[in-house]
Specification:
Chain lengths: 219, 105
């Protein structure tokens, strides 16, 4: 495929048609990913538009029949990261914590500490279903971007590890590590919220909160 | 007698502190709890190959200790997926994209 400038009017039309057929159907997925990256609807809308424009301009680099959705996520994230750098609002704490991560599988215990706490009170984690979407999205937003993106691309968008690795420019081992840490952090966040609003009866955390006099968040 | 009671206790909440191997776990020649739990994320992500997914499914099916953990992880993922897929791209954004395509190059 040739860059856009070299195309005849008819070729350009065909290029637009194939782009609309293959790339545009992913607008919902790209939008919600952009929303989680940018954190606000206005910024997300600009990010989505920029993503599709760049995608169209480099459509000749896309291999037909491969996963257009993954490719779009890659572009979206790269655009977002470049914008973030330009606005010079690095989160140095996050950078440092991510720099400490290894590329191998996490050495932490295979037994999720959450399971131990839930064993008697809600072993199948039914409280997750009771938490409103907004609160879950809040918890996702609190994750460092590297964990957030990994969890979103895997658990919300269903991308395979290989595609996530390519989208994030890291080895698959790093993807697994980020997924592991991101999920555990989310689970801890949502568990503590559930205890504080009484979705989970009792619990050491609730006892400690009671003793310190703090009140549960509004549900 | 004690064997029956210990198996009964396995099904009651808070019935034991130490995981006991259930039928299908290593002592019976199947996968151990440790192995199954170590693979739980890869299993749920569909990233395991070969015979392993079937072995892990079987372990979680028969092991009273491990089954709740799998359910818990599934409930968590379901909640994430439900929460994360709610938004749709606003129509005006789609229109703006189409307009910008028309203006290229």
């Amino acid at each position: 495929m040739t860059p856009l400038e070299g195309l005849s009017a008819r070729e350009l039309d065909e290029r637009r048609s194939s782009f609309q057929r293959e790339a545009l159907p992913h607008a919902d997925a790209v939008y919600r990913f952009a929303l989680r990256l940018a954190g606000a609807p206005d910024a997300a809308e600009d990010l989505v538009q920029e993503t599709f424009l760049r995608a169209f301009r480099s459509w000749e680099q896309y291999t037909p029949g491969t996963r257009a959705k993954s490719w779009l996520f890659t572009i979206c994230r790269n655009v977002y990261l470049r914008q973030r750098e330009r606005s010079a609002r690095h989160d140095r704490i996050v950078e440092e914590s991510v720099a400490r991560e290894g590329t191998g599988s996490p050495g932490a215990s295979v037994v999720n500490p959450l399971w131990v706490e839930l064993k008697d009170r809600d072993p199948e984690g039914e409280f997750f279903g009771a938490i409103v979407d907004g609160r879950i999205l809040e918890a996702i937003q609190r994750l460092p971007e590297e964990y957030r993106t990994a969890v979103l691309l895997s658990d919300v968008e269903g991308l395979p590890y290989a595609d996530i690795a390519e989208a994030m420019g890291v080895p698959i081992g790093t993807v697994k590590s980020r997924l592991f840490r991101g999920r555990r952090q989310l689970q801890r966040d949502l568990y503590e919220y559930a205890v504080s609003v009484g979705y989970i009866p009792g619990g050491a955390s609730a006892g400690a909160r009671g003793a310190s006099g703090s009140t549960p968040e509004d549900a | 007698m004690s064997g029956i009671f210990s198996r009964l206790r396995a099904w009651l909440p808070g019935g034991r502190d130490v995981p006991e191997p259930a039928p299908g776990c290593r002592e019976d020649g199947g996968l151990s709890c440790q192995d199954a739990l170590a693979s739980v994320y890869e299993y749920l992500d569909g990233e395991l190959d070969g015979r392993t997914p079937a072995e892990i499914e079987e372990h979680f099916r028969v092991c009273a200790e491990c089954y709740p953990h799998l359910s818990c992880e599934k409930a968590f993922r379901e909640a994430l997926r439900r929460a994360g897929r709610g938004e749709r791209c606003p129509e005006r954004v789609r229109l703006r994209i189409l307009e910008s395509l028309e203006q290229e190059p």
